[in-house]
Q: What sequence folds into this?
């Protein structure tokens, strides 16, 4: 390579002849002539040799033409490949683009205040939920698309009302504004097949915003929040221990300001510095907060327990038989009747539990005792008729019948 460059320099810049160059460099004149005649640097070219992969290539192409996404391992099985799977994978990787349909991903330009991308992240750690149970509750992650400002919190479940409550808490408590669009994938609690659930429709209507459900197999559209999920898993999670979901949310709230102060190359700044531009272009929070709690009306049974979010909660037994309004959100479970509060419990994250207020047990014992005493007094006060009255009414004389039976018995013995 160096001789080739020097030969061309001496010939074109110094004006030396081929013979002079050959004599100066001590090489053959043919070498000089070939170097001057070539259009590029010399390269070693190995003559093509038929290999096992070359022999198998027609069958590989036949399979890919019919099944463009067939994995290389399946192709190896179908063609009876016995060589190196690494070589076959490389060959399939080169050939596949000729048959697989292209799926281009556009680069999106996010304007201030336009969109917040939302997703659920499931941390790969076991969180103690109480009562000896543990699990991996979902974490709602919402990222402002323009400023890359991250908001997140762990939720008890992925049901609709928990998602609505989580969105409202993050928008009102951490972002302080409402974007023009909320971007979601096809999460069942949000909606399916282009139709939103009724609570979600009421939520976005109250906020005067819109919710966009992205098409399936299009992860690039919300790649910002997908990368944030990976960032949380690699930067927040390692080396941490959590005692409860509340402890998880506390540590996450302490860490998020650090994450939002990091420089982001794509936006050439820090999310904490650009979020003010983002929120200035967003909608203000509604004057009336949306309905973010699950509400149901049920009749209180004799055992004075009502089920909410997978657990049974006690209610004041004095309301047995009455219609009760049961309300639960992310933190509390409340029961009321005609505006009067009958029960309030902290919501349990574990499942299948029975949560009891000792005051309700005492009230139940008092009511039960009163009921039993009242039943006994009612029995004593009720008049009891002498059964002999019925004998006299129907003319039955048990004394005569008893004497006759006795006499018959004596005669039989005699």
A:
């Amino acid at each position: 390579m160096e001789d080739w460059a020097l030969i061309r320099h001496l010939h074109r810049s110094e004006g030396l002849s081929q013979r002079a160059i050959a004599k100066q460099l001590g090489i053959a004149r043919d070498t000089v002539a070939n170097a001057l005649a070539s259009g590029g640097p010399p390269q070693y070219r190995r003559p093509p040799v038929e290999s096992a992969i070359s022999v198998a290539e027609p069958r590989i192409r036949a399979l890919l033409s019919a099944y463009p996404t067939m994995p290389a391992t399946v192709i190896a099985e179908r063609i009876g490949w016995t060589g190196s799977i690494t070589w076959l994978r490389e060959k399939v990787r080169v050939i596949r683009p000729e048959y697989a349909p292209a799926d281009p991903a556009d680069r999106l330009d996010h304007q201030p205040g336009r969109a917040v991308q939302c997703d659920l992240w499931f941390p790969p750690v076991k969180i103690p939920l109480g009562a000896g149970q543990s699990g991996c509750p979902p974490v709602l992650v919402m990222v402002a698309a323009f400023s890359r400002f991250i908001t997140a919190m762990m939720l008890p479940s992925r049901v609709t009302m928990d998602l609505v409550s989580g969105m409202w808490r993050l928008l009102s408590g951490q972002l302080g504004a409402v974007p023009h669009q909320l971007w979601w994938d096809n999460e069942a609690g949000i909606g399916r097949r282009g139709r939103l659930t009724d609570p979600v429709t009421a939520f976005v209507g109250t906020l005067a915003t819109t919710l966009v459900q992205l098409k399936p197999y299009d992860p690039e559209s919300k790649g910002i929040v997908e990368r944030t999920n990976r960032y949380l898993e690699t930067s927040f999670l390692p080396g941490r221990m959590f005692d409860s979901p509340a402890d998880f949310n506390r540590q996450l709230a302490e860490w998020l300001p650090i994450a939002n102060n990091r420089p982001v190359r794509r936006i050439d700044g820090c999310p904490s510095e650009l979020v003010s531009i983002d929120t200035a272009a967003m909608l203000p929070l509604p004057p009336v907060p949306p309905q973010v709690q699950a509400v149901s009306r049920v009749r209180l049974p004799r055992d004075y327990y009502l089920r909410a979010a997978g657990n049974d909660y006690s209610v004041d037994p004095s309301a047995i038989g009455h219609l009760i309004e049961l309300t639960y959100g992310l933190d509390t479970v409340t029961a009321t009747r005609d505006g009067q509060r009958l029960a309030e419990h902290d919501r349990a994250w574990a499942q299948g539990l029975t949560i009891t207020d000792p005051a309700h047990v005492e009230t139940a014992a008092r009511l039960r005792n009163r009921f039993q005493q009242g039943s006994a007094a009612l029995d004593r006060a009720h008049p009891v008729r002498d059964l002999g009255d019925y004998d006299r009414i129907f003319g039955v004389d048990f004394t005569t019948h008893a004497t006759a039976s006795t006499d018959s018995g004596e005669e039989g013995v005699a």
User: Anything to note?
Assistant: The CA atoms of residues 108 and 165 lie 29 Å apart. DSSP finds 14 helices and 16 strands in the chain. Residues 408-414 have pLDDT under 50 and may be disordered.
